[in-house]
Amino acid sequence: MESTARATTHLDELIDTVALLRAPGGCPWDADQTHASLVQYLVEESWELIDAIESGDRDEMIEELGDVLYQVLFHADIAAHTDGERFDIQDVAAHMTAKMVSRHPHVFGGDRTAETAADVVSFWDELKADEKPHRTSVLDGIPRGMPALALAQKVLGKAEKVGVTDAASGAASDVPVFADEAELGAALLSTVAAARAGGLDAERALRHAVRAFEDEVRAAEQQGAAG
How far apart are CA 69 and CA 63, in angstroms? Predict the structure, then answer.
């Protein structure tokens, strides 16, 4: 009789390795970790992966992708042994597959068609709204822990979707236009240097400005809903 057993993959081996390290008799450090204690490592590994991507080094990308994957498997194994959670990596994968199928009806036999990436982006917001009806603002769901610059870019992009632009940049007549990212980067570095020379925290200053702008966006949304 022909065996129907599935061949063990390298991913299976890694999942088993995580389980072994966290099991009784395994590694005491691994066994002591929690979702919260691992956050710092997830952040570090994510930034190291970004560095590897930007460097274009294949071997570095393999290593850093592995480190990020390990964090995902680690969290899933913790959940599998935590009362009130009790899910594992298979549950995570199943949820993600269902989510991707739902987000791509133009691929998986839905009633949408998309010829370009822009077509896809145009209806993603509708799909997300159906998935998360409790969200009442385009700003809901934006991770608050993002670095200020990334947060600013994310918030501005979301605000544009409801017709709100940054009043500071929109009202100024001398807003600089940058030829490329190199020129923009130099300007940003110069701004941070000026802030540092003046004893100011550029990260905190931008975060406060973003939060003030978010208040404007939410006010505009409420006004639009009332009107």
Answer: 10
Q: Which among 75, 21, 22, 72 has a CA at the least distance from the CA of 46?
A: 72
pTM: 0.73
158: nearest Cα among 106, 100, 213: 213
Select the more confidently predicted residue: 155 or 138. Answer: 155
Cα separation, 190 vs 99, in Å, equals: 42
pLDDT tens digits, one per residue of 175-219: 788 999 999 999 999 999 999 999 999 999 999 999 999 898 888
Token couple for 82 = 């935590």
Q: Are 112 and 105 contacting, i.e. CB atoms less than 8 angstroms apart?
A: yes
Other beta carbons within 10 angstroms of residue 165's beta carbon come to: 14
Asked if 49 and 67 touch (Cβ cutoff 8 Å), the reply is yes
